[in-house]
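Hi, here's the filled form for the chain we discussed.

Project: internal
Contact: R.S.
Residues: 421
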Amino acid sequence: MPIDKNQLENLLSCLARDHEQELTHHKLLRDIQDHRIYVGSAPNEIVRPIQTYLESLPEFDPKHIHSIEFAGGWTRTNAEQLARMTAALVIETGNPKKSAAAVLEFAKGQNIPAIAVLPIHGVRTEKKIKFSNDVELVPLKSLPETRLQRQLLFPTFNQTQQTFFALHAPMALTVRYTAKHPLRVHTSEEGLRNAKAQSRGQLESRLHEVARCLCLAGPSAVIPGFSWHQFEDPVLCRLSPVGGSGRHQEIQPLMIRARDPVDSKLSRHIVKNYANLDRGKRKEIDKGISLLDQALRRLSPEDAAVDLATALELTVGESGGELGYKLGLRSSLIIGGSVDVRIRTRSIVESLYGQRSRYLHGNKPKTSYKLRGVEPIESLSAKELIEEGARICAAILRKYIERGSVPDWRRFEITGGRTWA
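And the returned structure, exactly as it came back:
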């Protein structure tokens, strides 16, 4: 016998009436301590009757194993968890009829709109940025509420100490899709293990690719947090447990400086051009982006100089010749501009390479760098040199993505940067 909407509605209405005082008290606690009370919390006097009803139905037989399947994998659930979420929904909405309809849709629904979410730190925007029909950059607080979102927006002290950048992500990259049949029933653990979503990992990979592109728009380090999947409907989100998955971050920055809002037009342009690259070209460019992102996470200017110089070597250092000379010349030709701009670009890159060499050879690094050939005379601190070098490196990588290839260096140099291919 499937879920009977009228039976469930009557049950929830009776519970809400008989336990009105407990529900009012619990809602008051939630309002006072909003960010500390788990989104699925509810009094056991309300939860147990709902659980008993659900377990009397074939689809929620306790002998079976239940899971919620999204495009990125699955999360285990059961009648007790759904009962607890249902009771919490009654508390929040104060509407048993609406809560019963949501449970019915959750249990039997097909082709439900869903969202894959990747919180990110290091990028800021005042408005939503749309990269394609399904991929967007949005403020995290604008998404339907889930447990992980609440932890990110309202972290406790211990969470902040343990995983600062995983839990402080004011923005989120999202991709919208359709969950074909979210609630699944398995007769055994083996059946659960064999239940694999068809597009496992593909949506997360798309979001991480967009995050890499955003690194070039600042440039700024873009630190992703734990990703998760959720329903688009805020009410259905209340009924679905959300599990997160993350990628290991080898280098976590000590702090991230406040940045200006990301240029929406530039970021859309980068993402669009990156999507048009073939897989081989993406792999080449990804190495340079990863080193740039790594440099932007560094606290030590010397370590950052090594990463940036290596990124430039990968992008403009192909073929023979003295490396510092070659990196400076080619970078200045790619960046372009007036003669004075090109001289300044070349001097910055040569100074950056010099800083890298001094550090690797065990010499004491300089605290300031005079830019050779630049008039009027200009000097940069080690920190300023890294910032300028990062801008140059990002601009070169953006040019590669736009052009879709690396220049033919012999022709490029002989023609003064006028011939790319």
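Let me know if anything looks off before we file it.
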